[in-house]
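Sequence, C-alpha coordinates reproduced for reference:
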Amino acid sequence: MRPLSQPGKNRQRSRYVLLVITLLTITIITLDARGVPMISSARDSSRDALAPVRGAARWVTTPFRNAWNGITGYDELREENEKLRSELGQDTANAMREQNAQEELAKLKEQLNISFLGSTQSQIARVTSGASSNFSDYTVEIDKGSELGLAVGNPVVTKGGLVGRIVRVTTKRSVVQLITDPDFSVGVTVGADQNQGVGHGTGNTRTFIVDRGIDLTDEVQTKDSVFAGGIENSIMPPDLFIPIGTVDKITPDEAARVQVLQVNYTVQFGRLDVVQVIKWVPAS
Protein backbone atom coordinates (compact mmCIF):
# COMPACT_ATOMS: atom_id res chain seq x y z
CA MET A 1 0.00 0.00 0.00
CA ARG A 2 1.30 3.48 -1.01
CA PRO A 3 1.67 5.91 1.87
CA LEU A 4 -0.73 8.84 1.79
CA SER A 5 0.87 12.19 0.95
CA GLN A 6 1.19 14.64 3.78
CA PRO A 7 -0.61 18.00 3.16
CA GLY A 8 1.89 19.96 5.22
CA LYS A 9 4.85 18.78 3.20
CA ASN A 10 3.06 19.68 -0.11
CA ARG A 11 2.42 23.22 1.05
CA GLN A 12 6.03 23.58 2.14
CA ARG A 13 7.30 22.35 -1.25
CA SER A 14 5.02 24.85 -3.14
CA ARG A 15 6.31 27.71 -1.06
CA TYR A 16 9.87 26.67 -1.78
CA VAL A 17 9.27 26.53 -5.56
CA LEU A 18 7.57 29.95 -5.50
CA LEU A 19 10.50 31.43 -3.58
CA VAL A 20 13.03 30.03 -6.07
CA ILE A 21 11.08 31.37 -9.08
CA THR A 22 10.79 34.79 -7.45
CA LEU A 23 14.51 34.97 -6.74
CA LEU A 24 15.33 33.80 -10.27
CA THR A 25 13.10 36.44 -11.81
CA ILE A 26 14.64 39.22 -9.73
CA THR A 27 18.11 38.03 -10.70
CA ILE A 28 17.31 37.99 -14.43
CA ILE A 29 15.74 41.45 -14.30
CA THR A 30 18.78 42.81 -12.46
CA LEU A 31 21.24 41.28 -14.93
CA ASP A 32 19.19 42.53 -17.92
CA ALA A 33 19.15 46.04 -16.48
CA ARG A 34 22.93 45.92 -16.13
CA GLY A 35 23.28 44.86 -19.80
CA VAL A 36 24.72 41.41 -19.25
CA PRO A 37 25.30 40.10 -22.85
CA MET A 38 23.95 36.63 -22.20
CA ILE A 39 20.62 37.95 -20.93
CA SER A 40 20.26 40.47 -23.82
CA SER A 41 21.03 37.75 -26.34
CA ALA A 42 18.43 35.45 -24.81
CA ARG A 43 15.88 38.24 -24.88
CA ASP A 44 16.59 39.05 -28.57
CA SER A 45 16.44 35.36 -29.47
CA SER A 46 13.04 35.13 -27.83
CA ARG A 47 11.79 38.12 -29.84
CA ASP A 48 13.13 36.63 -33.06
CA ALA A 49 11.50 33.31 -32.23
CA LEU A 50 8.16 34.97 -31.54
CA ALA A 51 8.30 37.38 -34.54
CA PRO A 52 6.78 34.89 -37.05
CA VAL A 53 4.00 34.20 -34.59
CA ARG A 54 3.24 37.90 -34.20
CA GLY A 55 3.44 38.40 -37.98
CA ALA A 56 1.16 35.44 -38.62
CA ALA A 57 -1.33 36.72 -36.09
CA ARG A 58 -1.36 40.14 -37.78
CA TRP A 59 -1.74 38.51 -41.24
CA VAL A 60 -4.60 36.29 -40.02
CA THR A 61 -6.45 39.18 -38.39
CA THR A 62 -5.95 41.63 -41.31
CA PRO A 63 -9.08 40.50 -43.26
CA PHE A 64 -11.16 40.85 -40.14
CA ARG A 65 -9.79 44.30 -39.42
CA ASN A 66 -10.35 45.31 -43.05
CA ALA A 67 -13.87 43.89 -42.93
CA TRP A 68 -14.61 45.88 -39.81
CA ASN A 69 -13.29 49.05 -41.41
CA GLY A 70 -15.39 48.28 -44.49
CA ILE A 71 -18.54 47.76 -42.41
CA THR A 72 -18.07 50.94 -40.41
CA GLY A 73 -17.38 52.96 -43.62
CA TYR A 74 -20.06 51.34 -45.80
CA ASP A 75 -22.80 53.90 -45.21
CA GLU A 76 -20.47 56.75 -46.06
CA LEU A 77 -19.25 54.97 -49.21
CA ARG A 78 -22.81 54.19 -50.29
CA GLU A 79 -23.90 57.79 -49.85
CA GLU A 80 -20.92 58.97 -51.87
CA ASN A 81 -21.67 56.48 -54.68
CA GLU A 82 -25.32 57.49 -54.77
CA LYS A 83 -24.30 61.13 -54.94
CA LEU A 84 -21.90 60.42 -57.82
CA ARG A 85 -24.52 58.38 -59.68
CA SER A 86 -27.07 61.14 -59.23
CA GLU A 87 -24.65 63.76 -60.53
CA LEU A 88 -23.68 61.55 -63.47
CA GLY A 89 -27.34 60.86 -64.29
CA GLN A 90 -28.15 64.56 -64.17
CA ASP A 91 -25.19 65.40 -66.41
CA THR A 92 -26.25 62.69 -68.87
CA ALA A 93 -29.85 63.92 -68.90
CA ASN A 94 -28.71 67.50 -69.44
CA ALA A 95 -26.43 66.41 -72.28
CA MET A 96 -29.27 64.48 -73.93
CA ARG A 97 -31.64 67.44 -73.62
CA GLU A 98 -29.02 69.72 -75.09
CA GLN A 99 -28.42 67.33 -77.97
CA ASN A 100 -32.17 67.01 -78.65
CA ALA A 101 -32.57 70.78 -78.57
CA GLN A 102 -29.72 71.18 -81.04
CA GLU A 103 -31.24 68.56 -83.34
CA GLU A 104 -34.68 70.20 -83.17
CA LEU A 105 -33.15 73.59 -83.93
CA ALA A 106 -31.27 72.14 -86.89
CA LYS A 107 -34.48 70.63 -88.28
CA LEU A 108 -36.30 73.95 -87.96
CA LYS A 109 -33.49 75.91 -89.56
CA GLU A 110 -33.41 73.42 -92.42
CA GLN A 111 -37.03 74.18 -93.29
CA LEU A 112 -36.76 77.96 -92.97
CA ASN A 113 -35.92 80.23 -95.88
CA ILE A 114 -36.86 77.67 -98.52
CA SER A 115 -35.61 79.22 -101.73
CA PHE A 116 -38.46 78.21 -104.04
CA LEU A 117 -41.07 79.82 -101.74
CA GLY A 118 -39.75 83.34 -102.28
CA SER A 119 -41.93 85.79 -100.32
CA THR A 120 -44.98 83.50 -100.27
CA GLN A 121 -46.63 83.30 -96.85
CA SER A 122 -46.25 79.96 -95.13
CA GLN A 123 -46.67 78.30 -91.75
CA ILE A 124 -44.18 75.88 -90.26
CA ALA A 125 -45.69 72.72 -88.73
CA ARG A 126 -44.70 69.33 -87.39
CA VAL A 127 -45.90 65.92 -88.53
CA THR A 128 -47.61 64.28 -85.54
CA SER A 129 -48.89 61.00 -86.98
CA GLY A 130 -48.42 58.72 -89.94
CA ALA A 131 -46.30 55.68 -90.74
CA SER A 132 -42.58 56.33 -91.11
CA SER A 133 -42.08 54.60 -94.44
CA ASN A 134 -45.16 53.10 -96.10
CA PHE A 135 -48.34 55.18 -95.69
CA SER A 136 -51.34 52.86 -95.99
CA ASP A 137 -53.83 55.69 -96.46
CA TYR A 138 -51.30 58.16 -97.94
CA THR A 139 -51.98 60.82 -95.31
CA VAL A 140 -50.20 62.38 -92.34
CA GLU A 141 -51.43 64.73 -89.65
CA ILE A 142 -49.73 68.00 -88.74
CA ASP A 143 -50.00 70.03 -85.54
CA LYS A 144 -51.36 73.28 -87.00
CA GLY A 145 -54.88 74.18 -88.13
CA SER A 146 -57.34 76.89 -89.02
CA GLU A 147 -56.55 79.06 -85.98
CA LEU A 148 -53.26 79.87 -87.76
CA GLY A 149 -54.89 80.45 -91.14
CA LEU A 150 -54.48 76.99 -92.67
CA ALA A 151 -57.17 75.79 -95.08
CA VAL A 152 -58.13 72.88 -97.31
CA GLY A 153 -56.07 72.99 -100.50
CA ASN A 154 -52.93 74.49 -98.97
CA PRO A 155 -49.79 72.87 -100.46
CA VAL A 156 -47.40 71.29 -97.97
CA VAL A 157 -43.67 71.26 -98.69
CA THR A 158 -40.22 70.66 -97.24
CA LYS A 159 -36.88 71.92 -98.43
CA GLY A 160 -36.79 68.83 -100.66
CA GLY A 161 -40.00 69.71 -102.46
CA LEU A 162 -43.72 68.89 -102.59
CA VAL A 163 -45.12 66.68 -99.81
CA GLY A 164 -48.84 66.98 -100.57
CA ARG A 165 -51.78 69.23 -99.74
CA ILE A 166 -54.23 69.71 -96.90
CA VAL A 167 -57.54 67.84 -97.37
CA ARG A 168 -59.04 68.24 -93.87
CA VAL A 169 -58.56 70.92 -91.26
CA THR A 170 -59.65 71.57 -87.66
CA THR A 171 -58.78 74.37 -85.29
CA LYS A 172 -55.46 72.87 -84.22
CA ARG A 173 -54.80 69.98 -86.62
CA SER A 174 -54.74 69.29 -90.35
CA VAL A 175 -54.65 66.15 -92.50
CA VAL A 176 -52.30 66.14 -95.49
CA GLN A 177 -52.83 63.97 -98.59
CA LEU A 178 -49.38 62.88 -99.76
CA ILE A 179 -48.24 63.17 -103.35
CA THR A 180 -47.44 59.43 -103.17
CA ASP A 181 -51.20 58.71 -103.28
CA PRO A 182 -52.18 57.22 -106.70
CA ASP A 183 -55.25 59.49 -106.59
CA PHE A 184 -53.08 62.60 -106.22
CA SER A 185 -52.74 64.21 -109.68
CA VAL A 186 -50.96 67.48 -110.34
CA GLY A 187 -49.83 69.54 -113.29
CA VAL A 188 -46.05 69.57 -113.81
CA THR A 189 -43.37 71.31 -115.82
CA VAL A 190 -40.36 69.32 -116.98
CA GLY A 191 -36.83 70.33 -117.96
CA ALA A 192 -35.33 73.52 -119.27
CA ASP A 193 -38.02 73.81 -121.96
CA GLN A 194 -40.70 73.68 -119.24
CA ASN A 195 -42.75 71.08 -121.07
CA GLN A 196 -46.09 70.75 -119.32
CA GLY A 197 -47.81 67.52 -118.38
CA VAL A 198 -49.77 65.78 -115.63
CA GLY A 199 -48.41 63.30 -113.16
CA HIS A 200 -49.57 61.23 -110.15
CA GLY A 201 -48.33 59.11 -107.29
CA THR A 202 -47.80 55.37 -107.61
CA GLY A 203 -48.44 54.24 -104.04
CA ASN A 204 -44.81 54.08 -102.99
CA THR A 205 -42.35 56.63 -101.68
CA ARG A 206 -39.86 56.28 -104.52
CA THR A 207 -41.61 56.83 -107.85
CA PHE A 208 -43.85 59.49 -109.40
CA ILE A 209 -45.24 59.01 -112.92
CA VAL A 210 -45.87 61.64 -115.58
CA ASP A 211 -48.05 59.94 -118.20
CA ARG A 212 -49.99 62.78 -119.83
CA GLY A 213 -49.04 65.86 -121.78
CA ILE A 214 -45.40 65.17 -122.69
CA ASP A 215 -45.50 64.65 -126.46
CA LEU A 216 -43.18 62.28 -128.27
CA THR A 217 -41.51 65.28 -129.91
CA ASP A 218 -40.86 67.15 -126.64
CA GLU A 219 -37.21 67.43 -125.59
CA VAL A 220 -36.92 65.51 -122.31
CA GLN A 221 -33.86 63.83 -120.83
CA THR A 222 -33.04 61.77 -117.79
CA LYS A 223 -31.93 63.88 -114.81
CA ASP A 224 -34.28 66.68 -115.90
CA SER A 225 -36.03 68.34 -112.97
CA VAL A 226 -39.78 67.97 -112.54
CA PHE A 227 -41.74 70.73 -110.80
CA ALA A 228 -45.29 71.20 -109.55
CA GLY A 229 -46.74 74.62 -110.31
CA GLY A 230 -46.07 77.09 -113.03
CA ILE A 231 -49.41 76.17 -114.61
CA GLU A 232 -52.59 78.24 -114.60
CA ASN A 233 -55.71 76.72 -113.05
CA SER A 234 -53.68 74.11 -111.20
CA ILE A 235 -53.94 72.93 -107.60
CA MET A 236 -50.47 74.43 -107.06
CA PRO A 237 -49.53 78.14 -107.12
CA PRO A 238 -48.91 79.17 -110.75
CA ASP A 239 -46.05 81.49 -109.80
CA LEU A 240 -44.08 78.85 -107.86
CA PHE A 241 -41.98 75.97 -109.11
CA ILE A 242 -42.06 73.36 -106.35
CA PRO A 243 -39.65 70.44 -106.89
CA ILE A 244 -41.08 66.93 -107.18
CA GLY A 245 -38.04 65.01 -108.38
CA THR A 246 -35.82 64.15 -111.34
CA VAL A 247 -36.50 62.05 -114.41
CA ASP A 248 -35.07 58.57 -114.02
CA LYS A 249 -36.54 56.73 -117.00
CA ILE A 250 -38.33 57.71 -120.24
CA THR A 251 -40.66 55.30 -122.05
CA PRO A 252 -42.36 56.27 -125.36
CA ASP A 253 -46.05 55.34 -125.59
CA GLU A 254 -46.71 55.19 -129.34
CA ALA A 255 -50.41 54.49 -128.92
CA ALA A 256 -51.02 57.56 -126.76
CA ARG A 257 -48.37 59.59 -128.57
CA VAL A 258 -46.75 60.62 -125.28
CA GLN A 259 -43.59 59.98 -123.30
CA VAL A 260 -44.08 58.33 -119.91
CA LEU A 261 -41.64 59.67 -117.35
CA GLN A 262 -40.61 57.77 -114.25
CA VAL A 263 -39.53 60.33 -111.65
CA ASN A 264 -37.55 59.84 -108.45
CA TYR A 265 -38.83 61.99 -105.56
CA THR A 266 -36.55 64.56 -103.95
CA VAL A 267 -38.53 64.46 -100.67
CA GLN A 268 -37.60 61.71 -98.20
CA PHE A 269 -41.06 60.62 -97.09
CA GLY A 270 -39.70 58.15 -94.56
CA ARG A 271 -38.14 61.06 -92.63
CA LEU A 272 -40.97 63.58 -92.58
CA ASP A 273 -40.86 65.72 -89.47
CA VAL A 274 -40.97 69.48 -89.94
CA VAL A 275 -42.90 70.85 -92.93
CA GLN A 276 -44.16 74.18 -94.23
CA VAL A 277 -47.71 74.88 -95.31
CA ILE A 278 -48.11 77.41 -98.16
CA LYS A 279 -51.01 79.74 -97.39
CA TRP A 280 -52.51 79.54 -100.85
CA VAL A 281 -55.67 77.82 -102.10
CA PRO A 282 -56.60 76.99 -105.70
CA ALA A 283 -59.38 78.90 -107.38
CA SER A 284 -62.77 77.25 -106.86
